[in-house]
Amino acid sequence: MDIGTIAEKLKLKIICGESRLGETVTGGYAGDLLSDVMGNSKKGDIWVTRQVHQNTVAVAALKELAAIVIVQNASPDADTVQRAETEGVVLLVSAQPAFEVVGEIYRLLRGA
Amino acid sequence: MMAEKQGFGESFTVTGGDYFNAGLVSSRIKKLLKECGIPEQAVRKAAVVTFEAEVNIVSYAVTGIISVKVENGSIFIEARDQGEGIPDIESALLEGFTTANDKVREMGFGAGMGLPNIKKFSDTFEIESEIGKGTIIRSMIKIQE
Q1: Which residue of A has its CA nearest to B25?
Q2: Per-residue pLDDT tens over the stretch A68-79
Q3: Sequence-separated contacts (24+) of B93-102 with Cβ below 8 Å
Q4: Cβ B116 vs Cβ B139: under 8 Å
Q5: Considering only CB atoms, which residues of chain A are within 8 Å of chain B?
Q6: In contact, B16 and B83? CB cutoff 8 Å
Q7: ipTM rounded to 2 decimals
Q8: What is the layout of strands, in order, in the sheet containing B134-142?
Q9: Chain A contact for B119, CB < 8 A?
């Protein structure tokens, strides 16, 4: 399933990275500890987090994650958006809490 | 942050306390390795190792240098910092052990996973540290086609 379809089904706000919405999401990872995500996420994962600072972009770019989904309508810092634009990272925002976001993405990807 | 050619590879300076730019050096190293035609899997391992080393320097040291070279089918990474040093290396290598302050933790760092991640993604790993002087980390990642 591509990033754009997930964004549409979950009514996610697209902050940046529109040109990459056609790319495939192969899995998902959730977490706010950057080293946890660094160590355990996989290329192509969609990452659900409450973190909004720009180091998240570094993690997503280094691990080649499909997109970052920020939960609870939290606003990414201006620096985060700027860095995401520079690095070509897809930044999405959900109004829902992480539990709901993860559940819905899981259902979409795994058909559970 | 600056890069200086050293023939065999590159060295990058990382400034302690500069959380804003944490990840920039590892990002540049990743691009460099990709440009050298290193296979993806090895590049991703090197990205984790250099990112964690970079975050450690930012979090605990005054300044540090991360060097990377490719030689004999392997990537060699060295992170050498001038900082407080690690009093108990054995504990520091345990997942979950941390001495990070609140500022570091608020940013999602300091979970006690940095050194364990470096070890996990390295084929060989060495660490030396001297209190009040600094820490040296050496990591080797084999390049497999």
Answers
A1: A58
A2: 999 999 999 999
A3: B93/B119, B93/B127, B99/B60, B100/B59
A4: no
A5: 32-36, 38-39, 43, 51, 53-59, 61-64, 79, 87
A6: yes
A7: 0.87
A8: B3-5, B9-15, B61-71, B74-83, B134-142, B124-130
A9: no
